[in-house]
Design a protein that fits this description.
By secondary structure, the protein is α/β, with parallel strands linked by helices. It contains eleven helices and nine strands. The chain has two domains: about 140 residues, Rossmann fold; about 150 residues, Aspartate/ornithine carbamoyltransferase (Rossmann fold), CATH 3.40.50.
């Protein structure tokens, strides 16, 4: 297989295992390029990509922009906070105006679930979902799984724990889909108020015991407490959350094994993760995730460009 089965990256749910493996093998090649002295290739020299962010996101936007520029694409950055959207312009109006400028691909983050799917149905350009509401964040899940594969050489049979604010996370759902398609076992852990109801229907285990779950897993992916999305109080205090569900060195030192720690960022240090854990040279692969994010996004953009939308 040398092409993706889809013209858009709307969610991991729509990808096959072969699609994911193709993205990984392509990212392997781009990782090699990123470690060279000259890091730029002319692969997308004739492609124009618009980054449209209706929510603030410094890390994801910069990662996509760097990936696009490493591939020699022409890049247009659009921020809804300083655009006509605030004047009442619709999503479709905004994008059609940009497409009138002959844009080939759109990378979009939007606060509403399904916005990227809606977009893909109405425009003739490849669409990449950079996060839609609390639904999916496919490139984050791909880079998380890629980072685990890079360290262990496989995902088949691995035990992966996703710890933290599951109910508000778009990363969690994409990770569940991605890891399961690659043969990993997935468990969710957090306060009962932050675990979605009936999530077990996706084939995952659910636990509220952090220490037992850490003893079970090979890798733990710690999710940020998304205070900006929490309209109600889901736990008594940040201090209490850190005490009962935060990942600390004290917890890791109790284990009789090595544990790999991921975090999609940005981190609330001292809440869901202790600084000593986040910066630990043996446990943490958080900076590798950031580096791998560029390679994964280069791979996605490169493969979609070879599979234009009708």
């Amino acid at each position: 297989m040398s092409a993706l089965s889809v013209p858009h990256l709307l969610g991991i749910k729509h990808l096959t295992r072969e699609d994911i493996e193709l993205i990984f093998s392509t990212a392997d090649n781009f990782s090699t390029i990123l470690n060279r002295r000259i890091k730029k290739v002319p692969s997308l020299r004739d492609i124009t990509i618009a980054n449209i962010f209706f929510e603030n996101s410094t890390r994801t936007r910069i990662s996509f922009e760097l990936a696009e520029k490493r591939l020699s694409a022409d890049v247009v950055n659009f921020s809804a906070s300083s655009s006509s959207v605030k004047k009442g312009e619709t999503l479709l109006d905004t994008v059609n105006n940009i497409l009138a400028m002959k844009v080939d691909m759109v990378v979009m983050r939007h606060p509403h679930v399904g916005a990227c799917d809606f977009l893909a149905q109405h425009i003739k350009a490849n669409v990449v979902n950079a996060g839609d509401g609390t639904h999916e964040h496919p490139t984050q899940a791909l880079l998380d799984a890629f980072s685990i594969r890079q360290k262990y050489g496989k995902l088949e049979g691995m035990k992966i724990l996703i710890l933290g604010d599951i109910v508000h996370s778009r990363v969690a759902l994409s990770n569940i889909y991605c890891l399961q398609k690659l043969g990993a076992k997935v468990r969710l852990c957090g306060p009962p108020t932050l675990i979605p109801k009936n999530i077990e229907s996706l084939g995952v285990e659910v636990s509220y015991n952090v220490d037992e779950s850490l003893a079970w897993c090979d890798v733990v992916n710690v999710l940020r407490i998304q205070l900006e999305r929490q309209k109600d109080s889901y736990f008594p205090s940040l201090r209490e959350y850190a005490r009962y569900f935060g990942l600390s060195m004290e917890r890791l030192n109790k284990l009789d094994k090595h544990l790999t720690v991921l975090h999609p960022g940005p981190m609330n240090r001292g809440v869901e993760i202790e600084s000593k854990v986040a910066d630990h040279p043996n446990h943490s692969v958080i900076l590798h995730q950031v580096e791998n994010g560029v390679a994964i996004r280069m791979a996605v953009l490169y493969l979609l460009a070879a599979n234009p939308s009708d």
